[in-house]
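Re: the 327-residue chain
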Amino acid sequence: MSTKKIAFFTWLLIGTLVFPCLVLASHEGELRIWIREKATVTGDTIKLGDIATFTPEDDDRVSQLREQRVSAAPAPGRDLTLNSRFLIYRLSSVVGGDKKVRVKVPRSLLVHRDGQVVSARKLADIFKQYVFRLAPWRRKDMELEKVQVPGPIVLPHGDLSWNVAERNGGNFVGDLSLVISFSVDGRVYRKVPVRGRILVNRTVVKSGRNIQKGEIIGAGDLVELSVKTGRSGGTNVRSIKEVVGKRAARSLREGQVITREMVEIPPAVRKGDRVIIKAENNTVAVSALGKVLEDGHSGEQVRVMNISSGKEIFAKVTGPGQVRVTF
C-alpha cells in the first residue's frame, strides 16, 4: 500500500474511533465529507451523495463525488449496515489521493431503502377484480369465501403495473390460484402467488323420491332449488325441463343431485314392439307390419322382422312405432 493510502487510513481510523465528535478546523481549499450514521435511498445503488454531507457544498469536486458508487442498495423496505472498515476502504479509492479532502466516518452506517408498498388489501382487491371480470357467473351469485395473500410487499419506486395469470386453469368455482406479476417502469420485479375460494349460487335438480332404473321421470318426481357450492358441477342438470320425459339410467335415491349421466332419452322403439315398416323410393311407397328385434332411438338403424315374409331387414327409426327402409 502506498504511503498516501497508509496516511489516509490512519487518519480515518483516528477520526472514527478517537474523535467521533471532533469538528475539524477549516483550511482554505479544503473539502470536508461527513458520513452520516443513518441514510435512506430509493434506487439500486448507494451513492456517496446519499450518505454524506459536504462542506462547503459549492466546492467544484462535490458534484462528481456525489455520484460515486459506495455499495449496492438493500432490497426495497430492507436495511443494510456498512461498518467503518468497509466505508474507509471504499472512500480511500475515491478521495485517498486528495490531500485537501477530510473525511469523517461513523462506527457504522445504517442504510434503509425506501419503496412503494402494495398492501395485503390491494393484493386481495386485484384477485377479486380479476375474478369478477372474467367469471361466467353473475356477480350477485358469487361469493369469495377467502383470499390468501402473502402480506404486504415493497417494490422500488417508479411506474407500477401488474399482470395476472392463472396457475390452475378452472371455471371460477372452488379453489383458484393466481400469480400477480408486478412491474416497475416496465420491468418485471416480483411475482406474487394469491389464492382464493369461490362459491357460486347454482340451480340444481334433485330426485324427490326413490326412482328405479328404467323408470320414466315426471315433473312431480323432481325438486329444483338453489345451492351455494364450491364444486364445478359441470354435468349437473340445471332445470327440471332437462329431465322430464327421460328415463333413469340408474337407480336414484331421494334427495340425490341429478347429473346428465343419470338420465337418458328412452328409445322410440323397444325390442318386441310392433311397428309400421315404410319402404319407399322416388316413385313407390309401400308399408308392412314388422317386429322390432332391438331397442332404438329416433335416427338409429335397428333390426326389424317383416311379419308377413319373416325376412329380417335393417330400418331407420323415424318415431314411436315407425321405421323406414329406402330402396
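The chain has a mean pLDDT of 87.
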